[in-house]
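Support case: zinc ion complex. Customer-provided input:
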Amino acid sequence: MKLLDAKPAPFVQLILCDKCGGEKQHQEPGFEEFVCIDHHCGYTTVEDDGKHIQVDLCYACFKEMLGPYWRVKYNWITAIEPNPSKLKT
Ligand SMILES: [Zn+2]
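Agent response - structure generated as follows:
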């Protein structure tokens, strides 16, 4: 027999953008849009070898910095909208 209980788990209450300093509480719109990079640098990074780096960016800063280079793999909004030209009558 197992008796279940719940224990509190840690969560991110507040996140700050490392570029602009903007912040969001976890229940605020935009909190989920932060991009958090957590990366371990390997030996080919030469001077950064062995470092574990982290950066948190709000979506606006992320887009400003990396938007010119990203590729859109999928757009779920346009994918679910019916295309009238493909509907059979
Ligand atoms: Zn920002």
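The two ends are 59 Å apart (CA to CA).

Case will auto-close in a few days if no follow-up is received.
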